[in-house]
Amino acid sequence: xxxxxxxxxxxxxxxxxxxxxxxxxxxxxxxxxxxxxxxxxxxxxxxxxxxxxxxxxxxxxxxxxxxxxxxxxxxxxxxxxxxxxxxxxxxxxxxxxxxxxxxxxxxxxxxxxxxxxxxxxxxxxxxxxxxxxxxxxxxxxxxxxxxxxxxxxxxxxxxxxxxxxxxxxxxxxxxxxxxxxxxxxxxxxxxxxxxxxxxxxxxxxxxxxxxxxxxxxxxxxxxxxxxxxxxxxxxx
Length: 236
Prior knowledge:
The protein is α+β, with helices and mostly antiparallel strands. It has helices at 2-20, 35-51, 115-127, 184-193, 206-209; strands spanning 97-102, 109-114, 136-141, 144-147, 159-161, 168-174, 179-181, 222-224, 230-232.
């Protein structure tokens, strides 16, 4: 009987410890952006680049593609020659992140795109009107609008989980019917924390790409106004 109780305790303890292996939101460990996974892919990319005379292991995308998703890593070019397997948190392995390269001309750097955001935007695009334009609830800024999600068939206003904190980020649209994520909240927080000199006209999204592994994909350009607040920069 004592052995049976001991086994039961061990099983319960094991289950408890396994539960502790989950982060906020109960996401499995293999869905989180670990530094060692990024480093492994970065080393593989650097090795491929050196052996290929400067070529990069990336998939071809149209030149007009969003800069943050423009250079997805082609794991078939580095697995298994440079990397044993694609990271567990990568899309190729069933994870929620697309591995991409930034600054390909000067210093190709491995970053991540949170594909859960892409899934939400894809659903909204699917539900847009036949003419390609969603119903507008209000104007946020010149050329930027808040959508009327109820008219699109949703029960509530949609947002996406920020990849940088525990807040929800609004979803916005431009006059041409394109859908974006509004990162103003996160950028405002970074502006308050940074010591870098920011000038009106500067695209301030670097504050996110320089400080986090995940890029602000599906975003409009932002700069600052005279109050050092983030504002949309649609003419860029």
